[in-house]
Amino acid sequence: MSFEIIKPDPSMLSVMYQIETRAHPYPWRESQLASCFGERYINGLLFVNQVPAGFYIADQIIDESTLMNICVLPEYRRQGLGHRLMEHYLAATTNAGCTVWFLEVRASNLAAQQLYEQSGYTQTGIRKAYYHSENGREDAILMSKVAMAEAS
After folding, report:
1. I need a surface site. Which of 38, 72, 132, 151 has the fewest CB within 10 A?
2. The domain that contains 114 carries what CATH number?
């Protein structure tokens, strides 16, 4: 398998929206995705054998970044692609000067929580009843990661 992660531009919005609607039970609206291109955003679009298979969307403000969305198509899951996207995101934002990272994740999304923990994130809080779910509302787990200071 060949992998490539590129910086998407707005012309790739429809491809990303197709991935979004297939990957999430409560997908973003296309207009939400469209609003995430520009100077403050660091995004990546993953291709597997030249087929779009996943993406991430993040913002950056000074030395902080928030991972706003990350997804992989269902047929490509459990192949380490989420890890590839996370590694790419963290490298890109580190190279851009970030030292602190934030995200939130559904309390029921244990696979994502495990991915984030393996990437160095720790739980910092809970937003009660933040997400819509099939049972009404669901909590968001808040997580963060801080760059380790280099030893002198």
Report:
1. 151
2. 3.40.630.30
Q: Specify if 151 maps to a domain.
A: no
Q: Which two structure tokens, joined as six digits, stand for 111?
A: 């696979």
**Active site (catalytic) residues:** 104, 116
pTM for this prediction: 0.92
The answer to the question of residue 14 being in a domain is: yes
- Largest Cα separation within the chain, whole Å, is 51
The three-point CA angle 79-148-115 to 5° equals: 20
- Count of domains forming the chain: 1
State which residues form the domain around 89. 3-146
Instruction: Give the CA dihedral 28, 52, 86, 29, nearest 10 degrees.
Output: -10
The pLDDT tens digits of the residues spanning 98-138 come to 999 999 999 999 999 999 999 999 999 999 999 988 878 99
pLDDT digits (tens, 9 = 90+) for 31-59: 999 999 999 999 999 999 999 999 999 99
